[in-house]
Design goal:
About 25% of the residues lie in helices and about 20% in strands. It has a five-stranded mixed β-sheet with strand order 1-2-3-4-5, sandwiched between helices. By secondary structure, the chain is of the alpha+beta class. Strand 2 and strand 3 form a beta hairpin.
Length: about 180
């Protein structure tokens, strides 16, 4: 497997298309608009870049197929806010059901954050406001509201096995 920083237009396309392929048979996944996802990584549109930085990667299989994606970020306004140690974030995680692939992505985030002085990693979170793509679904698995994270149940095991621990429960209701 090979991890690759998202730089080219083709990389960006792969970053956006991976969930489309992963969830093509899911009746409950709601595809976000590409412009909404790309807006998070646009230095002109996302004001968090004024006091933070972010990077994203795709993971390729031996045959060159995109099998995972992830982003890591540091928001200097929240690095120490409510944390015992400097804390960065990771998000936009998508991966096939493969522990090795998932851990490569998470290790990439951990290493990048560590190189920048971070001692802990929150995730999955968004590089920006908490009103979009925040958290991991651990039960319910019903259609999310637009811009809420969607994940299959196996992500819970991946994150727990990697060492993530529950920070708080966020309960969402639909009518």
């Amino acid at each position: 497997m090979q991890i690759k920083e998202v730089i080219t237009a083709q990389d960006k396309k792969e970053f956006l298309q991976l969930p489309v392929r992963l969830y093509r048979n899911s009746a409950i996944w709601i595809r976000p608009l590409d412009a909404d996802v790309e807006g998070v990584f646009d230095t002109e549109k996302n004001k968090t870049f004024h006091h933070g930085e972010c990077i994203r990667w795709i993971l390729l299989s031996e045959t060159g197929e995109t099998i995972g994606r992830v982003a890591a970020f540091i928001n200097q306004k929240t690095v120490s806010k409510g944390n015992d140690q400097p804390t960065g974030g990771m998000g936009f995680f998508e991966c096939i059901e493969n522990k090795q692939a998932a851990f490569i992505l998470l290790d990439q985030c951990k290493d990048w954050l560590k190189q920048r002085g971070m001692e802990a990693m929150d995730g999955p979170i968004n590089f920006g406001e908490r009103d979009r793509w925040w958290g991991l679904s651990t039960m319910g698995f019903t259609p999310p509201l637009y811009c809420m994270n969607y994940n299959p149940p196996y992500y819970v095991t991946i994150f727990e096995n990697y060492g993530f621990m529950l920070f708080y429960n966020q309960v969402c209701f639909a009518l």
